[in-house]
Write a structure and sequence with these properties.
Elements: H1 4-12, H2 15-27, E1 32-33, H3 34-41, H4 45-57, E2 61-66, E3 69-74, H5 76-90, H6 108-112, E4 117-123, H7 129-140, E5 145-151, H8 160-168, E6 194-197, H9 200-204, E7 215-218, H10 231-253, H11 262-272
Amino acid sequence: MDKTIPDRLSTLGHPQRLAVFRLLMRRYPDRVPATELANALDLKPNTLSTYVSALMQTGLISQERVGTSLRYAVDIEVTQATIGFLLHDCCRGRPEICLPFDHDATNKSAELTGQKFNVLFICTGNSARSIFAEAILRDLTPDRFNVYSAGTKPKSELNPFALEVLEHNGHDVSLLRAKNIGEFQTKDAPTLDFVFTVCDQAANEECPAWQGQTISAHWGLPDPVKVDGTDAEKSLAFRQTYGALRNRMTGFAALPIALLDRVSLQRAVDDIGQIKDKG
């Protein structure tokens, strides 16, 4: 057996190294700055450096320098090879005893039977970006998706600039409200087919695994709420965020979900998260 496999598994056996790896997996395919990793995991820079060095030595993550910043990303091929070893070698051709679901399965049945897919958008405050995503996708494809949004630390009220942009673009805002992500983690919550984080902070936070065969991806965008300046400048930031999300929603709504296997569908939603934002 290739010694690299035990080395990788041993490296991931350390709780803090595993935490770094899991955060990078949640952010894949983004490259995350070292300072953001350290802040999100409450680690000192030198401690983080030790952890990422160990992960890099086994090939699980890669490093790239952008200006003065070091950025890290999961090496997905190495990760797949490691997981593949556990599934195919250790399971000895019997994936049914290792996999919690059919790895070739998709959510085709929902579309073929006319049922709607359940989609959840998450950001920190649930006052702007995730609210935009909820309203846009719901109005683009009312017969195809049940669309929800939530926040990890939701605001008590929706942002007035966000509401103004939505109303200007013809969306009904009367039913929109800020919600805690906990509403979608109860036994009575809808089974989610897709979960998208639309801000980096929410993606960095630890959340329980979703039940079922949920497809998840990170579609991070800058927070327009944090823009300083005049009301006109703030309004422009919200309009640009709305436009960027509408581009992503249009791409997602166009996906032939029933025709894609799970791997292809995951790749497609990851690619949508990399769409350049033209506003």
